[in-house]
Protein: DUF4125 family protein
Organism: Bifidobacterium ramosum
Amino acid sequence: MTDMTDNGNDASNTALIERIVRREWDQFQRTNNEGGRAACQGNWPVFNQMRTSQFLTWPEPLLTSYLDDLTEADRVGRNLVTEKYGRMMASTAPAEYRTNIEPYIPRLSGDRIAEQERIIATQVAWAADFRARYPKLGMAMRVLTTAEDTAEATSFETYLRGELGTYSDATLMLYGRMIDDYTTAGRNLTEDTIRATVRLGGFADLAEAEAAQ
């Protein structure tokens, strides 16, 4: 697998990532937040950095498939960002989720949920490993597990579950393949993603960013 965070990404991937992040941002702007517009909806620089750092770790076929998901969603009037946050509420606001969200979003099959949970278990373990090795950077991350969710704080696990739930079957298949490739190579996706984040933030590497916290 190409390490996008170490080798840089070619022009086609750069263009794909820019298109994906812009489409997500547009959908984010159309996401209604209970209590009014959220402050983060006006912070393009942080949104761009965080989302770009995630996609820098993705291979081109996965980027292309996810861009297709976003394009199709716009075509049919779906908002994948709204759905992502809605799915998170299954944990953070379960009564509201059951009444106001679950009936209006695509229902996932048992096999689909099982594959998502397989991926999530791997990624939660990677995130825990990263936090143990880089505790200062880890403190800046979300809380780790769904058991730690509150009405005000959404965990890494719950956020990931919400996001995976919005992917098409084709995109999830490619995403699962990437996770398997990472596992085979003995690599950690959380580490690669945060390495990309700190580089975009001006640090040379994770060690420098950790020391600066």
Observations:
- The CA atoms of residues 20 and 67 lie 6 Å apart.
- Confidence is low (pLDDT under 50) at residues 1-8.
